[in-house]
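User: Design a sequence. Structure:
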């Protein structure tokens, strides 16, 4: 007999109690409904990128051989409204690269393609009210910094950089290319990001990467990796195999000119004023860029 509080407990009753306690502990340790158990033994998600000798044409169509041979990612889950729930619509991402750029495409399936939201048409506007697809790149894989490239079914470009892990600065502008099309299966987008647009360490073949999708009419977000509904550099997967990259001279020269005209309606004529300006950017190191501005137009 085993003493337990008041009275005695038989071995059989004690064993039953232990079994019940173990079952409760097991339930407590298991992921709650709607939460995702660690993948691959708790390791971060990884994709190995494929190099191509012939980069795809960025035209919003997946008919080039480069995409047929590209690495693929499609294990998306819902981020909003229910994190880690199965994604309602399938998303397939394709990745390849060449000596000049990393190319990323996505087939965004939608069973109601006529309901895709694509109202924003003018470059420079925010695409958050539309359906959109975004790519996060963390070239140093430091889980703290990176770039966001975002587009909608009309092929608009919106880009930004991360500050302090979670903060995004949308005033940053980089050179990159994208094109999108809508068809009977949903929509397709293609993105090419020149390596000269990015700061990176050429000796590092592993970058942080993530993907996110929005379906506006459902207020739904899906993605590849997330934590607490966030997909910033600290919560992302990695892409490996980026070798033989060159950053170039790291020198960007941006000349510009502003012209103003003043017309006097009292008949005394008009005057025209021309102001040239120059911006020079030079990468001192892969993570540090110097800037020189001559005759800046602060307006």
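Assistant: Done.
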């Amino acid at each position: 007999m085993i003493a337990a509080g008041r009275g005695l407990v038989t071995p059989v009753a004690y064993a039953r109690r232990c079994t019940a306690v173990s079952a409760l502990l097991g339930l407590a340790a298991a992921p709650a409904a709607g939460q995702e158990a660690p993948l691959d033994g708790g390791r971060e998600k990884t994709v190995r990128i494929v190099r191509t000798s012939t980069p795809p044409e960025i035209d919003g169509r997946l008919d080039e051989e480069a995409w047929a041979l590209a690495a693929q990612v499609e294990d998306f889950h819902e981020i909003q409204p229910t994190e880690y729930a199965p994604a309602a619509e399938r998303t397939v991402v394709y990745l390849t690269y060449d000596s000049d750029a990393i190319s990323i495409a996505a087939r965004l399936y939608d069973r109601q393609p006529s309901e895709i939201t694509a109202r924003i048409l003018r470059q420079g506007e925010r695409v958050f009210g539309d359906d959109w697809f975004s790519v996060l790149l963390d070239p140093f894989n430091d889980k703290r910094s990176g770039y966001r490239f975002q587009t909608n079914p009309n092929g608009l470009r919106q880009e930004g950089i991360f500050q302090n892990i979670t903060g995004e600065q949308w005033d940053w502008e980089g050179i990159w290319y994208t094109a999108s099309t809508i068809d009977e299966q949903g929509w397709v987008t293609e993105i090419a990001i020149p390596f000269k647009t990015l700061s990176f360490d050429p000796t590092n073949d592993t970058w942080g990467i993530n993907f996110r999708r929005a379906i506006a009419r459902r207020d739904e977000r899906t993605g590849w990796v997330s934590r607490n509904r966030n997909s910033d550099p600290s919560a992302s997967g990695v892409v490996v195999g980026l070798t033989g990259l060159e950053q170039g001279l790291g020198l960007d020269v941006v000349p510009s000119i502003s012209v103003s005209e003043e017309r006097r309606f009292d008949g005394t004529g008009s005057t025209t004023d021309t102001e040239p300006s120059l911006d020079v950017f030079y990468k001192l190191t892969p993570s540090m860029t110097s800037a020189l501005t001559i005759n800046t137009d602060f307006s």
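The longest helix spans residues 11-29. The two ends are 88 Å apart (CA to CA).
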